[in-house]
Amino acid sequence: MRRIEMKSISMRTLSRRTLPALALCLFSCFPYSSQIQHDREAILKGFPDSSRTYEFDGKNHYMRTGTGKDLLVFIHGSPGSWDSFAGFLNDSELATRARMISVDRPGFGQSTPGIPEPSLEKQALRIRQAILKEKGTGRVILVGHSFGGPLIAKLAMLDPDSYHALIFVAASVDPDLEIVHWYQNVGSWKVIQAILPQDLDVTNREILPLRQELIQLLPLWKNIKCSVSVIQGLDDTLVPPGNADFIEKQLPQARIIRVPGLNHFVPWARPDLVKKEILRELGGI
What we know:
Helix 5 crosses helix 6 (148-158). The chain has a single domain, classed as Alpha/Beta hydrolase fold, catalytic domain (Rossmann fold). It is 46% helix and 17% strand. The protein is of the alpha/beta class. It contains 13 helices and 8 strands. Strands 1-2-4-3-5-6-7-8 form an 8-stranded mixed β-sheet, with helices on both faces.
């Protein structure tokens, strides 16, 4: 009995050390932090009135720039916030071609921070309210990176006739490729949640049920009839490149851009690829 108790304590100690170490690595090893901070500051300085909040199943927040007729909607991954797409919001060419919003997904940024929403449908319904607030008479184009991918899919499944185009960027959509690692289960322990950085805790708590959420989407992919583009790095170690194959199978109309040597961080490593697809859908290419 004593031996079992000592083993339990040892595992708890290991978990207390391992999860924070993994968290530190994830945040400190992210190579685009300074770029995002620079883009964020540019938005806050150049567009001081761009912040928007609204109440729908809690507090929600997004940033808005641009003056065009069409609407671009950017949805970040996990973790993340609106500033993941700050570089696009600050792009002068895009700003003259479209109005743009970048949301804080539930649990991140200023949208009920620290409170995860594991349901893709509930997340989509909250984001849809921002789209309805900003939608004019023009077309609506959705751009989703990583976890934002299944959300733009869900939005289009809910309202098939409301969207002109979807742009999936390193999107995590195939339930068969969603693998839960041992440290994610450890991260769900209350004692570990208490010491994890808030954003990483929210990330873990929304990713753990993601496979089941994606399974529920399987019969609904046929509802998507709009234009679709997929950008997938072939060296992505976070979201397997097979996710692009999955979308290609579900949506034969999809335009698939597979990029050798490109990792998961497409919006910052190759923003030109994302912008090119946006301009294509806006009619600029």
